[in-house]
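Structure request: mannose-6-phosphate isomerase, Microbacterium bandirmense.
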Amino acid sequence: MLLTITNEPRDYAWGSTSLIAGLEGRAPSAAPEAEVWFGDHPADPADVATGGTLDAVTGGTLPYLLKLLAAAAPLSIQVHPTREQARRGFALEADRDPGDPTRNYRDDNHKPELIVALSDRFEALSGLRPVADTLRLLASLPSSPGVEALRTRLAGGDDAEALRHTIAWLLSGTARAEVDDIISALATAHSDEFAETLDAVRAIADRNAGDAGVVVALLMNYLVLRPGQAIFLRAGLLHAYVSGLGVEIMAASDNVLRGGLTPKHIDVDELMSIVDTTPAPVPVQTSTGAVTAFDIPVDDFALRRVQVDGEVALEVTGPTMVLATSGRIGVGSASGENLPVTVGTAVFATVDERTLTLRGQGEAFVAEPGRP
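Returned structure:
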């Protein structure tokens, strides 16, 4: 069975008034549009065109959540737990009210995710830079007590441990003077090697005055994704989306530990217990050919980007979604059902479907459970 599913955009403050609207060919919205959720997550299950919500069809069992994400301002720096960490944390917080703003764990699941860029530029901070590289970046800042304190904490010893102690110090609240000093020094920093990174962090600082997360951002890898490029964000990886429009898929979870660029609760101890401070670049995956299957090393979800020009037949496994992001596309099933997919909406195929045929011209993303 095929079902058309839609949802209303969520109006988080960091959202864009134009990116999702532009994708769908309508005028900019009056309020920010940050995310459109296609899934059965109890916080916001998708609407079914024939009536009701998707959780009534699936029983709330979908292992993944597919989204359109549109950022006009940086999201909080954050990290997600492993399954084991989520189960432990959720059990320890079982007596807290679900709406408690100090609660870290909303469920007992992990939240790995993949983001694929749709806009010409999708900016992200992802993972931590090797300390030697960061020390070269810091050399472009004018010398000051805060900058020298940061250099001293990073220099010498094991990179992962130096980064762990430095991030904990920055977020502890005891480094307020140093944080302000470093942010001030950013204004006149110049580096040919790190020009884009410095410009991006300065823009982040303009929106987050005095936030220690600005300095944490200086320690992170800055990436610009182009349309069709993707990054996978594993458990424990520090990250933040900065700007742009993308398709995001994740395990069905709402567990977020924040590490800056937000007025929301930051539990420094819990954050530091799950973050992986081992520095490394985050591999960028690039779409190639008519069908690109992204490399996703978890079994919660799989995602393919499909460039449709005529007809493409796809084998699918389990409950599947087809999200249209450009052009005019229809979805057909082996039983003869056919549904058009308007850009910005999706077709949901129930678990009994094994082959879907995409027809027309345009771009679509096909989400389904992962294959062990």
